[in-house]
Please model this.
Amino acid sequence: MRNSSADQLILETLGKQKSHLTSHQIYEAVHLRLPALNPSTVYRALDRLVNQGKVTVSDMGLGAAVFELTGEKPHHHLVCQGCGHITLIADDQIAPLISNLEKNYHYKIKTNHLVLFGFCEKCQDTA
Amino acid sequence: MRNSSADQLILETLGKQKSHLTSHQIYEAVHLRLPALNPSTVYRALDRLVNQGKVTVSDMGLGAAVFELTGEKPHHHLVCQGCGHITLIADDQIAPLISNLEKNYHYKIKTNHLVLFGFCEKCQDTA
DNA sequence: CATTATAATGCAAATCTTTGCAATTGCGAT
DNA sequence: ATCGCAATTGCAAAGATTTGCATTATAATG
Ligand SMILES: [Zn+2]
Ligand SMILES: [Zn+2]
Ligand SMILES: [Zn+2]
Ligand SMILES: [Zn+2]
Model:
């Protein structure tokens, strides 16, 4: 692996926008700064970064996968299928489960961004 | 919603093959039994079935989402990023966490097929 | 049974993503 | 600095998925 300018641009983009971005949004953003950049290069770069663990990819129910920088601490989300609201779950809530599974199954788990779907308090009433 | 033959065909297909199938595999299978069926019809039917909760869709690291019938009991998996081996996790291991989250966040969680990535015992050594 | 409303389907176009291959670039080793 | 290798990139083609719109089929209603 060597120093790829596409990778660098994408990491900077994800660093500024603190949110979950789709590959299309990422392409739009880097395209502004480097119009010559080819879409396939962006897709391949994203693939690379995810494989290296520098970027996390998740399905958050938006119809397209979303990417974000892998933080120092894992974090997780609840996503409401009624109103689309996204709740942050601190890793404390999840870490014990992960530890247990690692012990029981002799696994080293890499997943660090769980997304669980369901209905928030409000949307349960209307359902 | 009404009785769709595409939905029916897909449910039967998923019922026979007890494994996780990609949308492409599903299309191939139903196409054999009903060659006139259009790809977009299959995609839309899958979308419908997932929304109705009859079918579960997950990313298991195969490069494409996989579908399976929603069973009576939830189940979950560990997927090794080294050798690709898939381990079944019984719901007992996960259910308590889900209950806790539901209580703490006042949520009704619908996710019933967690997939966690990592490295199995063998592949940790070679890593 | 005829009528109407609604859901599902086919088709084609538009989009999005992946892939093969040749050209280029960055990096380490002479 | 130059060479050689392997990773990255662009480009075009292939492939996969989504979408808009017209048509057809189903189910409920009168
Ligand atoms: Zn997140
Ligand atoms: Zn809600
Ligand atoms: Zn499964
Ligand atoms: Zn393994």
User: Anything to note?
Assistant: Chain A has a mean pLDDT of 93.
